[in-house]
Specification:
271 residues; mainly beta; 18-stranded mixed beta sheet; two-stranded antiparallel sheet; 4 helices; 13% helix; 48% strand; elongated
Length: 271
């Protein structure tokens, strides 16, 4: 493994990366983009004797390249590090690529195809795919994700996702967004497959008193109370207005205006 003259390896430890992410608000300190790289600012890597989280910042690929090419200098980086863009705005951001064809939404074992709203809670869509605003423009993803205490962790508005800076930790690894409430405590792990699907691999959230949990290929549970919940294994919903609708009056309703439903494993309990 390549080291600098002080025998410091390039790899930064996970605890140090976590501290840097918290310091910078989970995005580029200059523009706020969520896809980032780690940059030694105060002491350059070649001269650094340690990976000090207070001397490392997050830069997106474009801003990092601008620093390398000399379009931005050290003073620009130092000024941005004092007041990172993400902490100013309250979130880091990035856009999903959806394309002109409707995409699949997969939540745990549940696959929704051409379904406008996967889950609706008390009239509020939690995850949905809206039609394009104009012809030959992309379909639009809109969603709200909270942690298991009900605090917003990630919001998607017309394909742009926003990672809230109030999270304990958030990082993008490959095509996955991972949000943690504490060490080892994942509240959301979401994977994107551009122009094809959005996959909620893991979720543990509370929204207006409704608990929603899922794990890919295993189980999805929507729970209003001890006396009203839905557990589903493998299930497909297609050409549907709403997959799971949760209301005070009717409790949990599955498949509103749905043309095709195929539940291989489904359990509804109200005892």
């Amino acid at each position: 493994m390549k080291c600098n003259k002080w025998q410091l390896e390039r790899d930064i430890s996970d605890p140090t990366k976590h501290k840097v992410r918290q310091n910078c608000g989970f995005g580029c300190i200059i523009c706020g983009q969520a896809l980032i790289q780690y940059h030694h600012s105060t002491t350059k890597y070649n001269e650094a004797q340690e990976h000090n989280p207070n001397e490392i910042v997050l830069l997106c690929g474009g801003c990092h390249d601008s620093v390398t090419r000399g379009w931005l200098n050290d003073e620009d980086v130092d000024e941005a590090a004092i007041n990172p863009k993400c902490l100013q705005k309250g979130f880091s951001f990035r856009a999903f690529v959806t394309g002109r064809n409707n995409i699949e939404v997969i939540a745990g074992p549940l696959k929704a195809i051409n379904t406008k709203t996967l889950i609706r809670v008390f009239g509020q869509p939690i995850f949905g795919v809206d039609n394009p605003e104009k012809e030959n423009t992309p379909f639009r993803i809109n969603a709200i994700f909270c942690d298991k205490e009900g605090k917003e962790s990630l919001v998607i508005k017309d394909n742009e996702f926003q990672i809230l800076t109030q999270n304990w930790d958030a990082e993008i690894v490959g095509s996955k967004i991972i949000i943690r409430r504490g060490s080892g405590d994942i509240v959301l792990r979401l994977r994107t497959e551009p122009r094809k699907s959005i996959v909620i691999e893991k979720l543990n959230m509370l929204y207006k008193g409704v608990q929603i949990t899922c794990e890919e290929n295993k189980q999805l549970t929507v729970k209003m109370s001890q006396r009203n919940f839905v557990e589903t294994g493998l299930a497909n919903i297609q050409d549907c207005e709403v997959g799971f609708d949760i209301t005070e009056e009717r409790g949990i309703t599955i498949g509103i205006d749905c043309k095709k439903q195929n539940y291989e494993t489904l359990k509804i309990s109200s005892h």
